[in-house]
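Supplementary notes for students who missed Thursday's class. We covered one full example, reproduced here. Read the sequence, then the structure, then the short commentary at the end.
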Amino acid sequence: MDPDFWHHRWRKNEIAFHQQDINTHLQHFWNRLELKPNECIFVPLCGKSLDLLWLAGQGHPVLGVEISRLAVESFFRENQLNPQIRQAERFEVWQADTFTLLCGDFFALVPADLSDVASVYDRASLIALPPAMRQQYARHLTALLPPSASVLLVTLEYPQDAMQGPPFSVEEPEVKALYENAYDIERLYVHDALPENPRFHDRLSRLEEKVYLLRPKAVSVALS
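Structure (token representation):
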């Protein structure tokens, strides 16, 4: 799945993954991260998500990365934000108020780009990637983050052979395999999402959303 796939989806407005409301799991479980005001939040593969607005409303600077320039432009335009745009070495940087969106490839990020990040919100990033890329993504994200940064992760589970992603099904054992070396993983919530998604009723027998809290093992040891 190369960048052209996502550029095509945005050009054709094939963005069913874009939610029209603030994600309820974010609102219900964000306090579990116990963040302080003004601590920076990183949102990978952020698109034009309205969740960015909610995070900023909680007093957090927001740092996002997004491959589609159309998505980045749409976020600022649709929310009446007037960004300053500059070309950096690896990214086109869009900034307005407390939002900084890096337009470019997630895998081009280096640790210095995320040095101020206190936590990560991943609702549509891990599940956007096929299995081989998920391994690469998790390794890269773990290597990028400061040692104390936690992750709020939202996944989908459904019979993968019944529907082609993205979004892909990411089962709980895979979440553990991807992250358990670096994080203590707590499943916070399981939600039966099939009743509220009638377009999937003829294809899926099961559709669950799961919410996880990933705390760095180094931090857990220090607190014990």
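Commentary. The chain has seven helices and nine strands. The longest strand covers residues 183-192. If anything here is unclear, bring it to office hours.
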